[in-house]
Amino acid sequence: MIRPGVTTGELDRIADREIKRLGAKPSFKGYMGFPATICTSVNEEIVHGIPSDRRVIREGDVLSVDVGAVVSGFHADSAFTVGVGDTSDEAQRLIDATRESLRLGIAQANVGARIGDISAAVQGYAECMGYGVVRQYVGHGIGRVLHEEPQVPNYGVPGRGPLLRHGMTIAIEPMLNLGDWETEQLEDGWTVVTADGAISAHFEETIVIADNGTEVLTSL
Asked: Which of 3, 59, 80, 105 is the Cys-Cys partner for 122 at CB 3.0 to 4.6 Å?
């Protein structure tokens, strides 16, 4: 349904209907006062964009969608970024690199590793590609509560941080910018944008760490 002419408000209603149809409950709606089912962040917006019928998606936009659902009392959290229609090569490279940084982070999420191993994998790849790595917002533990310990930064030092153990469930979510890593929050109290106005991309998966290997819970 993501195409030019559709509003982010329409996307929110679609997500709300589908989550409920599948027997789940939206995680975000009402969370700390958030008014919608999904977060829709466009271009320089990094995370927590509020869907609106006044926000029309246009050709060439970069749209990040963050969505959470509760199933049988357990939360899951995921995000993806897409180019709408004919986007620039520069924007597409950012999207592809952000997705790849998530894959590399997940590859480090094994029993006996440390949170810093995930963080360093994301940061090392992203900065090698020339992108700014958002530092003010991070991944997190997740379970019966949407945000739990430990925090999972997208920057850090290998071998440091909390130990990853069998049964831990975490959400890894790199946010990369075409420009600097600094951010600002808009007056709505939610939407976070790049301080320099550069385009941003965001990918996220919820994973469970187990002795027999890591499983991604939010991908088909």
From this structure: 105
Give the domain CATH number at 189: 3.90.230.10
Is residue 126, in this structure, part of any structural domain at all? yes
Residue with tokens 């004919």: 86
Domain hosting 79: range is: 8-216
Domains contained in the chain, number = 1
| pLDDT recorded at residue 220 | 73
Sign of the four-CA dihedral 85, 218, 181, 159 = negative
How many other β-carbons are positioned within 10 Å of the β-carbon of residue 156?
A: 22
- pLDDT on residue 151: 98
Please give the backbone phi and psi of residue 139, each rounded to the nearest 5 degrees, phi first.
-75, -175
Q: How far apart are the first and last CA of the chain?
A: 18
CA–CA distance, 196 with 56 (Å, rounded to integer):
23
